[in-house]
């Protein structure tokens, strides 16, 4: 099975498929090694990593990183396609690029294009539902592999109403979206969404807000964590370097750090690269 067919089968099997944030090939290989069934290339996370907003990312930047990740890992990669980088025509090209780059799925949302940096502060501007339907129809028509999943995301719960989000979700499903993502604001809405939208649903949030069993009991087949890994890695790096500034230590035994450094080499696949050299340019004397 291909990464795409594996992801589709896992979601159609009911999941839940847990997809942690993934912003580089090393993380993808680590996620894969831990047994996760998917990873998520977050637009917001990539924007922060580059010290800009997701709103300023180019399709080339996202597609290039997608290709780098899928080249070195077979974990199914879900790519945050944002607002499709424009209208229906631009969305079509985004699908071509991400599919060619090896992504297993793309998430598209119903905010305006160009997207605004203020969405990070919760200020979102939605496009009319019909305009999003047209973009999704174009996305479906643009894909060449039917196993390439299209996830339609709506921000209508917060910006319009839960009822409007349900209406949008139904319309996006009718337009051909494989999964619908929305953001319920109460336990009642979480339960209602699964009953009122006849489609597989995708959730987004920190894994730790629910236990694994609670996520499973929710019945949504895809759960994406778009930021926890990045935040925790940043925190560990910041605290270690701050401690070195304060007292000359990293807060970790140097021997332990070196042991993990060796693990990093393993996770990066260096043994395979060493083997190639040993068969060619670095042959034992």
Please, could you describe this protein's structure?
It is a single chain. With about 280 residues, this protein is an alpha/beta fold. The chain has two domains: about 5-235, TIM Barrel (Alpha-Beta Barrel), CATH 3.20.20.60; about 250-285, no CATH class. It is about 50% helix and about 10% strand. It contains 13 helices and eight strands. An eight-stranded parallel beta sheet has the order 1-8-7-6-5-4-3-2, with helices on both faces. Strand 3, helix 5 (about 90-100) and strand 4 form a beta-alpha-beta unit. Helix 2 packs across helix 4 (about 60-70), helix 5 runs parallel beside helix 6 and helix 6 (about 130-140) packs parallel to helix 8. The longest helix is centred in the last third of the chain and has 20 residues, at about 230-245. The chain is globular and about 65 Å long. It starts with a helix and ends in a 7-residue tail after the last helix.
What secondary-structure arrangement, pairings included, does this model have?
Layout: H1 3-12, E1 17-20, H2 25-33, E2 39-41, H3 43-49, H4 59-72, E3 77-80, H5 88-100, E4 105-109, H6 129-142, E5 149-153, H7 156-159, H8 162-174, E6 179-181, H9 187-196, E7 201-204, H10 212-218, E8 222-225, H11 228-247, H12 254-267, H13 270-278
Helix pairs in contact: 2-4, 4-5, 5-6, 6-8
Concise overview:
The protein is of the alpha/beta class. The protein is built from 13 helices and 8 strands. The chain folds into 2 domains: 231 residues, Phosphoenolpyruvate-binding domains (TIM Barrel), CATH 3.20.20; 34 residues, no CATH class.
